[in-house]
Amino acid sequence: MKAEITQRTSSTDIDALAQSLSLSAIQARIVANRLTENIEQLEKVVHPSLKNIAPPALLKDSDKAVKRIIQAIENKEIIGLLTDYDVDGITSHAILFHALRDFFGVDEKLLQHLIGHRIDDGYGISQGLLEKILAHEPLADLIITADCGSSDEQQIRQLKEQGIDVIVTDHHAIPQEGIPVSALATINPTREDCDYPDNTIAGCMVIWLLMSHLRAGLIAAQLVDVHSAKLSSLLDFVSLGTVADAVSLSSPVNRAVVTSGLKVMNQLQRPCWQATKQLLQRDFQVFTAEDLGFQVGPRINARSRMSDPYKAFHFLCAATLYESGQHLKDLDQDNQTRKETEKEMLQIAYKIAVQQLKKLSWSLVIYHEDFHAGVQGIVASRLIEKFGRPVIVLSSTNDVNKLTGSARTIPSIHIRQAIEQVANDSLNADGSNDMVLGFGGHKGAAGLKLKADSINEFSLLFDKAIEKQLSVKQINSSEQLRPQILSDGELAEEELSFQTISELKLLEPYGREFEAPIFEGDFLVQSIRIIGADGTHLMIQLATESHSFRAVWFRAMEKKGDQLPFREGENVHALYQLKENYYRGNFSIQLLITSAEQVTL
Questions:
Q1: In this structure, what are the phi and psi dihedrals at residue 523, rounded to the nearest 5 degrees?
Q2: CATH architecture assigned to 52-229
């Protein structure tokens, strides 16, 4: 399906914005095309600072949690660290571990690492993970969760019955039935009764805030010296988890922790970042938010997708470069396996999607018995890129009667609310549900469990739920749901420069809701050739009237052997990102192509 190119517009006076925020014309244009907040808010976005972070004490239940953790530390109790298996969860685990051990002096032997297996256990405090927890000898006295737990009342109640206190820290939406009442504390900025001013922060940020609050509590209790180090050195983990979890980067808080965390990371104090730099062959180049999202994050995620997640945790917390490098080799191999699995799943998913769009108007619900549960989310995102609709990708589980799924969405749809709508519409008279067996997530992504024989019925209800949300936004034609590329317009030839690249870098980090700039323009194709082992990427030399630029177009073709989209000597209209390429000691300007097609000038 051909992508629709939409040029971003802004009602803001760009010249006035540039002057008020001391921005160049191109910087002001990029900001104005993305944000409409008042100048005071824009100042915090454009110039991120840790001073914009609200006090952690504003998090509901944080005082109660700090009191209980201090008690556990004083009494040398066993503390379980229970986190999700994705990047947000693994970085949260690293933050918890380092804070308790290195900053607050907890003996490592008193810390239990509890990370569920994506395939065997599933998300959160699942029944499978619960059984593993209760099999530990000795049992934990206190369990602190991070990036999960808000929807797990049943399992938390069982832990409580075994004498284990549970502190939940999370950022996923609170279920309709409310917070888990059996938890000692539930720290989640999405709670309606929580006063924390930013509910877009990632799970790793929530646990970092709690640990910062714990430091203050330990100082007040005279258990930690008042001059002890603050936790800013752990912001590298917060930065990685925040970017990888694709939370909003229009949030001043998220921008501040990503910016500060990248500075910590680029000091290369940890072996994991030294090993990563060697693997990526970055020489003296610094890590950027783009590296976190497309290089580091996928390798950590790949481990939990294809195998157990503990290797990723050990990579982040390795004590030596050699140890970290060995772990990273395994993560990198898992990532290659993940790419191969993803490619195979996509070929099947594309065919199913084309057929499904003949009966569904607004969404896609894709299932195949050979799908790998660990790659569902990535495949769903790829399908959105191609079809421009909310997508759920389902795969089989160890239970033949249950399917597990990952959901991804377009900006106009709140995906968790759509699934919740289906769950409500399919309730039995007694309040039970034989279709949607469980779900959780947030606006941009969600997970669910589904009864295996209810896919068709679920698909129709899900499609109606999407239509209902779109009707509120007055989107009344399914033809309007198509892949969309937002453009920041054309650059003058003199703006295709290192100066422009430098100015755009100063607006980083880019990410969801503050996307990297994409420009468009007409070029002459001087040369074109296929690159990459899978034969789907292109290296193109593009020329303007007086300059020539090397361009790279990843996934330009669906499969090896496809016809080239255009030939040498033809004119094309291209959408691209303006990049700086480093090769053999030299920097050059490179265009990263998003989309291109032949035009007649």
A1: -140, 160
A2: Alpha-Beta Complex (3.90)
Where does 170-301 show beta strands of DSSP type E? Answer: 185-187
- The secondary structure of 355-420 as a DSSP string is HHTTT-SS-EEEE-TT--GGGHHHHHHHHHHHH-S-EEEEEE-SSTTEEEEEEE--TT--HHHHHH
Q: What is the DSSP letter of 514?
A: B
The mean per-residue pLDDT over the stretch 50-63 comes to 96
Query: What is the C-alpha separation between 539 and 340, in angstroms, rounded?
Result: 22
- Cα gap 497→480, rounded to integer Å: 36
Buried b (16+ CB within 10 A) or exposed e, 236-260: bbbbbbbbbbbbbbbbbbbbbbbbb
Of the candidate CATH numbers 3.40.30.10, 2.30.30.40, 3.10.310.30, 3.40.109.10, the domain formed by 357-480 belongs to: 3.10.310.30
Number of neighbouring beta carbons within 10 Å of residue 300: 31
pLDDT of residue 219: 97
User: What is the rounded distance in angstroms from the CA atom of residue 56 to the CA atom of residue 212?
Assistant: 7
Helix axes 39-46, 252-265, angle to 10 degrees: 20
**Taking all residues of the chain, what is their mean pLDDT, rounded to a whole number?**
91
* Cβ 126 vs Cβ 246: under 8 Å: no
3-state secondary structure 411-423: CCCCHHHHHHHHH
Q: What whole-number distance in Å separates Cα of residue 221 and Cα of residue 229?
A: 16
The class level of CATH for 518-601 reads: mainly beta
- pLDDT for residue 495 is more than 90: yes
Q: What is the pLDDT of residues 75-134, one digit of tens each?
A: 999 999 999 889 999 999 999 999 999 999 999 999 999 998 777 777 789 888 999 999
Contact between 218 and 224 under an 8 Å Cβ cutoff? The reply is yes
**458: confidence class by pLDDT, cuts 50, 70, 90:** very high
* Region 15-33 average pLDDT: 89
Q: Angle at the Cα of 435 (from 432 to 440), degrees rounded to 5?
A: 85
- Sort 27 into a burial class: Cβ within 10 Å, 0-12 / 13-18 / 19+: buried
User: Do 52-229 and 518-601 fold alike per CATH?
Assistant: no
DSSP E strand boundaries for 499-570: 519-531, 537-543, 548-553
Query: What is residue 90's predicted lDDT score, i.e. its pLDDT?
Result: 96
Highest mean pLDDT among 97-101, 279-283, 377-381, 456-460: 97-101
Question: pLDDT tens digits, residue range 187-239?
Answer: 999 999 999 999 999 999 999 999 999 999 999 999 999 999 999 999 999 99
DSSP string for 57-94: GGSTTHHHHHHHHHHHHHTT--EEEEE-SSHHHHHHHH
* C-alpha span between 140 and 143 (Å, rounded): 7
Burial tier of 113 (Cβ tally within 10 Å: 0-12, 13-18, 19+): middle
User: Cα(49)–Cα(253) distance, rounded to whole angstroms?
Assistant: 8
Q: What is the reported pTM?
A: 0.89
pLDDT at residue 601, as a whole number: 66
Q: Rounded to an integer, what distance in angstroms lies between the CA atom of residue 274 and that of residue 542?
A: 36
Domain residue extents for the chain: 52-229, 357-480, 518-601
